[in-house]
């Protein structure tokens, strides 16, 4: 059996009805839904490639929109964390530095994924007909499937620990669930 006492105590610190928390959840769920719907629509219709005059220009535009949406998501995540109470038992140096280390590993995965894939590989170029020569198997893909998704999740987990935020931990779970669904959809 699972002991839910710790989870009940943790969620006692989170007001899931707070408007900032709800906006954060919606922005987290929206992002992968948006880019998957847009990319599949492009793949079927080539509408963006026609509007922008080339698949590369369309892919770069989608990538820019995704980056802006990710900034909005991170802002909403941070504001939701700041508006909720901290977990006093976690507001110590060891928690902060553990979170910092987890965020650093996540950042390593995100940046190394981007460098291995390039801009069009990262931002769904295959849906625009921009294909890579071969499947990327170098680091971090050699040790982890979907390292950009799990690196991003680790960054949010680390950020939550650095701020001793139960709301951040719950939002990180929403990030992980959203990416898990995205992986199922994309696979």
Automatic annotation (TrEMBL):
Bilayer-spanning residue ranges: 20-39, 95-124, 165-185
GO cellular component: endoplasmic reticulum membrane
GO molecular function, one term: phosphatidylethanolamine N-methyltransferase activity
Primary localization: endoplasmic reticulum
Sorted UniProt keywords: Endoplasmic reticulum, Lipid biosynthesis, Lipid metabolism, Membrane, Methyltransferase, Mitochondrion, Phospholipid biosynthesis, Phospholipid metabolism, S-adenosyl-L-methionine, Transferase, Transmembrane, Transmembrane helix
KW Lipid biosynthesis (keyword) present: yes
BP-aspect Gene Ontology terms: methylation; phosphatidylcholine biosynthetic process
Pathway of action: Lipid metabolism; Phospholipid metabolism; phosphatidylcholine biosynthesis
Topological type in the membrane: Multi-pass membrane protein
Subcellular location: Endoplasmic reticulum membrane
Keyword Methyltransferase on entry: yes
EC number: 2.1.1.17, 2.1.1.71
Listed PANTHER family: PHOSPHATIDYLETHANOLAMINE N-METHYLTRANSFERASE
HAMAP family hit by this protein: PLMT (MF_03216)
Protein name: Phosphatidylethanolamine N-methyltransferase
Gene: Pemt
